[in-house]
Structure formats: C-alpha cells, structure tokens
Amino acid sequence: MQLIYAKPSPYSRKVRVTLLEKGLAGQVQEILASPMEDPAVLLAANPLGKVPALRLDDGQCLYDSWVICEYLDSLAPAPRLIPDGAERFAVLRRAALADGVLDAAVTARLELLRPEAIRWAPWTDRQRRAIERGLAVMEQDVATLGPAPTLAHIEFAVTLEYLDFRLPDLAWRAGHPALAAWLGDFSQRPSMLATAPPPS
C-alpha cells in the first residue's frame, strides 16, 4: 500500500497515527506530496487533490481520512479502534465532535492566510465559536474515553495538537484542564511523537 500525505496536514496525521497504533506502518510506503502543487501522484490517487489518499495493493484508491482509518482498522483484529456494538456509536460520536472542531480550526487557519484586506472576520469568528463549543463538550467527554486507544482518542489528540500548532492564540488549555492533562499523557505515545508536525 502507498499513503500519499503531507506532514502539516492533521488529516494525514490521523491516518499515520492509526497505522502506528494498528502495527501496520511497515506495510505502507509513505509518499510526501504538497496538495497545493497538484502533484501527479496525488491526483492519480484522489481526483480532488486532497491528502491523505491510500493506494491499495490492487490499485484501488481510498480517500478521506475517515474512510482510510476505518479501512485500516478492518485489516487487523487488535487493537480495535472502532469497536462493535453500542460502543461503536459512542466512539464515532466523540470522533465526529473532535473532527468537527478540527474542520473549524482548519477553516479559521485558511482564512488567516488570505490577505488581510479580504479576510471575512464574521466567518472566522463563527469558526472560533464552534471550536469553543466543541472544546467544552470534549472537556466533559474526555473522562469517558477509557484507557484503550480508539479512533476518538486519535481524533481528540490530533485536533488539540493542531490547535497548538496553527492557532496558539486560542490558548485552549486555560479553560480546559481535563483535556490538557489528558493530552499531556496521550501525546507521549510513540505514534504521536513519530507524527508530530514540523516546526512552523
């Protein structure tokens, strides 16, 4: 298999953490690509030109980090990152919450990259309000995550570290001590350390 990814991309990072947690990293060739340059290797794997994309051994390509993570989880029975039964939807709900916070953070970050004269402050403010509401629920939910890593754990950790990386002015730790303490532990997992984004 081949994973086409970008190091700064939090969506790529979710997949790379999943590979390491599942013990599958040795089965995947990682190929760096810059989405803004529309490299041929990426467009051949994903016509949308977005990372990550996973090319399977039979030539089939998967894209969207959710789809790729679920596929990788299906390849090995343990550890299960997306459990079966009722717990499945609890994990997916928490993962979707963190992913929504991440989407809002990425949107806010992209708006900041526009020339100041054409930035739309109400749009950025709306994303930040969504982040704040999501973090408030994550602060309540973090105690229910449990010790075994799931997709929700990965989503929480990647999202929080993306806020540190791209929106440090949010200073999210100040109002979310439980999340901050949890991340302090989870961020030391080898999968997180090995996939940390490059210095900005």
UniProtKB/TrEMBL annotation:
Q: Which residues form the GST N-terminal domain?
A: 1-80
State the InterPro entries in the record: Glutathione-S-Trfase_C-like (IPR010987), Glutathione-S-Trfase_C_sf (IPR036282), Glutathione_S-Trfase_N (IPR004045), GST_Omega/HSP26 (IPR050983), Thioredoxin-like_sf (IPR036249)
Residue ranges of domain GST C-terminal in the record: 84-200
What Pfam families does the record tag this protein with? GST_C_2, GST_N_2
A single GO cellular-component term from the record reads: cytoplasm
Source domain of life is: Bacteria
Protein name (database record): Glutathione S-transferase
To which species is this protein native? Immundisolibacter cernigliae
